[in-house]
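Agenda item 2: glycine complex prediction
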Amino acid sequence: MAVIASQAPIFYAEIGCAELSNYLRTSKPSIIFVLVDTNTHNNCLNIFLQQLETTITIEVIEMEAGEEHKNIETCSGIWETLSELGADRKSLMINLGGGVVTDLGGFVASTFKRGIDYINVPTSLLAMVDASVGGKCGVDLGNLKNQIGVINQPQMVLIDSQYLTSLPANEMRSGLAEVLKHGLIASETYWEKATNLEALTLEDLDDLIIESINIKSSIVQQDPTEQSIRKTLNYGHTLGHAIESYFLTNPNKVTLLHGEAIAAGMVMATHLSFKICGFPENKLRDITKKLNELFPKIDLLEEDYKIVIDLLKFDKKNSHGNINFVLLKDIGEAKIDVNVPNDQLLEAMNYYLKN
Ligand code: GLY
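Presented output:
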């Protein structure tokens, strides 16, 4: 089955292998570069290479794992390696990894010699349901998340949940935050399904992934360059990204996984939605309870509030000096470009801390 996300087709499981082989036969890349990180080198590369049927030269490039390596220095290293290994404009880059690898690898490919083709093979839940789909790629600027980048669609995205068997539980949870976000912005039924995880089988997980990708793809399809509805995919990310950036560089804080920061950001955004957009209070309570059960409480203190609010000025949705929030009128009914006064932000952070 293929789902079209803007121009990039998404293929599942063994169909993906067949489609990749077809693609390689017809587009005949000069060299295939497989970008991995230290984790996917150990856990995923063999699985991927065993499925790859081709006589084209394959070079593996490895980067360090972790958000702290999602920067322009890592890109420079990879651009140099590509150059040394003779990459030309007909070379293909295959990003085999989580969100850091697919974001950074997509950016490296999109800018090397003004752009070579790339394919995403996401190996984390987060990358499957969010990062690898929709063509956003880029890197952080210092501690500021995803400040440098482009929107450029991959040739295809290959989803295979067998890669998830080696994924640590906290990374699975991190991806779940984006799954839940898709429910909150687009479908109450999906939210209910995704939060009722007690009897989750592998088949259920596959269904959950496909449905999440369908939600995201349909939004990207309508607004590939994020002029309007695509902003809804940033639910919980305005405060979430600011908190993630702050924790990333503060030596007194433990670095958060993206989903952990976004889960906290979604509790806060739902409180703002209740205060500003009339979001039902009973659903706010339910969402808070579910997110608190699934995600560890982050170590945010009252003395951190001001720094977090200061960091909001770097949010990519801002325009003309305004900080634009995505809020909800109800589950599945998002509102974009909502201006939020500072006292409401403080209240939302207090709500998170006290509930
Ligand atoms: N991760 C949000 C988006 O792709 O638009």
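Discussion summary: The chain has two domains: 2-166, 170-354.
Owner for follow-up: CH.
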